[in-house]
Design a protein that fits this description.
alpha/beta, Rossmann fold
């Protein structure tokens, strides 16, 4: 008996050791998720920008909402925001624009930003619909001349652009350049504009990846980032936002956090825990008295849910089932993505698309189906199945 137990222990240790060795020696896949966070070394982090630009320029960092920063501090100069989505609320936008009108400068680089700011500046933007003839790898330029310098972005990327820049209030400073394989079809899409507001200026830029490690370290692309930042007045104070970021990495405050961020220390820690569990299991089993088996209470939640569902289904009450599914979907949006569902509008659609990674068209289709169902007293089985499929596609 003792010999068999020892064989089992040795076999478990060997198998676990092989697994841990394979896991520890496996190359970690590249994390392409956008974070724009100053301490992230991954491609779409902003560690290079922070070290080369922010620190060298002596910029001050803002780690609270812009409303709190502007109302609680005496500030003047330039504020730089960059992130995939700069979610400045309406009250914060009003305070920011008031600050700009006093003779200050704001630079926002984001694919999606405050609707309040866009409406105030009378700007409208759209996403370029790539057709088969256009390449998904755009370039960035400062003018539309064929001989002008183009800064290539060597990854597929959807393009946001301004569609009403022919007014006296807006000055186009840069373009996204897209073309087909033989450059017979070319488009220059305005994606960098300057708008005068009161005594100050607002710069809006729709390609925030120019501030990421990947873009800055790719050839001489850093020259593009330098050029757009030269629009700022560096004789005045420069502030860089660190609050409106996709992924914030907080300072490690414990030894355990440090251990778990290092791959090799993490697996050493897991080995210690595993060996401790094995020791307690076998040693405890050898010395302790037998413990009576107490059967746990049976969880019949599933059976109850199935019974209720069958009751609805047998009545062919498809509308009630659809209503429950819609309620669960909006609960999912609030719990998982932290997006309020009290108002369903374009801002809601863009937030959900940004956080879920789904296409805007797909989300709008679901919301249209939901509205149609809510407006009907009864629905058909096919409509219920279609709703279920659309919700499943958004969640997956």
């Amino acid at each position: 008996m003792q010999r068999a137990r020892n064989v089992i222990v040795i076999l478990v240790v060997v198998l676990v050791g092989i697994f841990i060795f394979l896991e520890a020696s496996t190359t970690t896949p590249i994390d392409w998720s956008p974070s724009y966070w100053k301490n992230h070394k991954k491609p779409f982090g902003a560690k290079v920008f922070h070290e080369i630009f922010t620190q060298n320029l002596g910029a001050k960092e803002l780690d609270r909402t812009i409303y709190e920063e502007l109302t609680e501090n005496e500030m003047s100069g330039n504020i730089l925001f960059f992130n995939a989505f700069v979610g400045i609320e309406a009250i914060d936008s009003d305070e920011l624009l008031s600050w700009v009108s006093d003779g200050n400068t704001v630079f926002i680089s984001a694919e999606y930003t405050s609707a309040k700011i866009l409406d105030t500046l009378e700007l409208k933007k759209e996403q370029f619909d790539f057709k088969n003839e256009f390449a998904y790898k755009p370039a960035l330029k400062f003018d539309t001349a064929s001989t002008s310098k183009a800064f290539q972005y060597n990854r597929k990327q959807n393009i946001q652009y301004f569609k009403n820049t022919d007014t006296l209030e807006h000055k186009v400073l840069g373009y996204a350049y897209v073309a087909n394989s033989d450059s017979t079809q070319i488009k220059h899409l305005p994606n960098f504009v300057k708008a005068q507001f009161g005594e100050g200026q607002v710069f809006l830029h729709l390609f925030p990846k120019v501030f990421t490690n990947y873009f800055l370290l790719d050839g001489n692309n850093y020259a593009y980032t330098e050029s757009i930042l030269n629009q700022l007045d560096f004789e005045k104070e420069l502030y860089v936002d660190q609050f409106y970021k996709s992924q914030k990495m907080f300072v490690q405050t414990s030894i355990l956090q440090y251990l778990l961020t290092n791959k090799y220390l993490k697996w050493a820690y897991y080995i210690i825990i595993l060996m401790t569990i094995i020791y307690i299991f076998f040693e405890g089993k050898r010395k302790q008295k037998s413990i009576a088996i107490v059967k746990p209470y049976v969880n019949k939640t599933y059976e109850f849910t199935q019974t209720i569902a069958e009751m609805y289904y047998s009545k062919s009450d498809h509308k009630s089932i659809a209503t429950k599914q819609i309620e669960h979907f909006f609960d999912h949006v609030r719990d998982v993505y932290r997006i309020p569902t009290s108002t369903i509008n374009d801002d809601f659609v863009h937030q959900l698309a940004s956080k879920s990674g789904k296409e805007i068209k797909q989300i709008k289709t679901l919301l249209r189906i939901i509205q149609d169902i809510e407006n009907k007293k009864q629905i058909e089985k096919g409509e219920l199945i279609k709703l279920d499929q659309l919700i499943h596609n958004i969640k997956s």
